[in-house]
TrEMBL record:
Chief location bin: nucleus
InterPro entries: AAA+_ATPase, ATPase_AAA_core, DNA_pol3_clamp-load_cplx_C, DNA_Rep/Repair_Clamp_Loader, P-loop_NTPase, Rep_factorC_C, RFC_lid
Residue span(s) of domain AAA+ ATPase: 52-193
GO molecular function per UniProt: ATP binding; ATP hydrolysis activity; DNA binding; DNA clamp loader activity
Protein name: P-loop containing nucleoside triphosphate hydrolase protein
Amino acid sequence: MGSFFRNQDTRSRSTKDSTSCLPWIEKYRPKSLNNISAQEETLITLNHFKDSLPHMLFYGPPGTGKTSTILALARELFGSELMKSRVLELNASHERGISVIRERVKNYARNKCPGFKIIILDEADSLTKDAQEALRRIIEKYSELTRFCLICNQVSCIIPALKSRCTLFRFKSIGTENMRNRLSYICEQEGINYYSEALDELIKDSQGDLRKAITWLNNASKLHKNDRVTVDTIKETVGIVPDDIINDLIESAASKSYDKIQETVSNVIASGYFGKQIIEQVFFQVLQDLRFSENHKCNIGESIGIVDKRLVDGGSEFFQVLSLMCKISENMN
């Protein structure tokens, strides 16, 4: 299987100059469906649908090419210039209420033009239920004028009435070899020197999210402009918590001392590490620790789910990590 984006021909010097200031995730975004190769089944189906495009629902993990695919398809259908007036792209996580659907989306959908237009609703799983119901009615009413493409990570958050009106396309995580090929290609184009272990670390930390991997590589190259990219460079850029700090947290839990746990958690949070990253690495460490029984690991996993939800809802990182470490202490033999 080829890289996620098939390597495009080297651009001319003038084109390179005009794109040099772009973030790499935009600079290396594919311009046509032929440049996308990690979602073969989806591409075959979309090419069959070009003449009679249905409403679409793209779902799957982040960074797998969902937005890039629909933008590439729109560019092939309309061309770069006409696409500006024929495609409306909205991020539903920013504009998730029913008023946006009733006003902005409806007004655009009902405007007549030769052929049809496309409305792209990114992160559609953030839309409220009322907004999704309103969207369903708009889709029914203006199908002759407009095609809709809903993009989401969690298809379970889309109401059945919307799913039944769309053709579903599942996007899978980008494989290790695809990630390596694409990242190596970008490094070659940008003249970046790197250790192969650094790409291994980048691929591992991004967990199949190519967008995240490219963004981190972009940042690492800026932080260490004239240096060779190393594993430590990647860890610093990503915000990986050093193993000795994770071990300190686990050992503080093993001490069964609340004061020791509180002091350790306080020091870690004060160092500026991201709470979500801390609990993720702590959990992976717990899974490998023989001091925890299988039942204890299940209890800790359940607690991590609760803590993660609280962090998403804006809870204090200090109190949530402290809560988790106390739970780990309770479940440690």
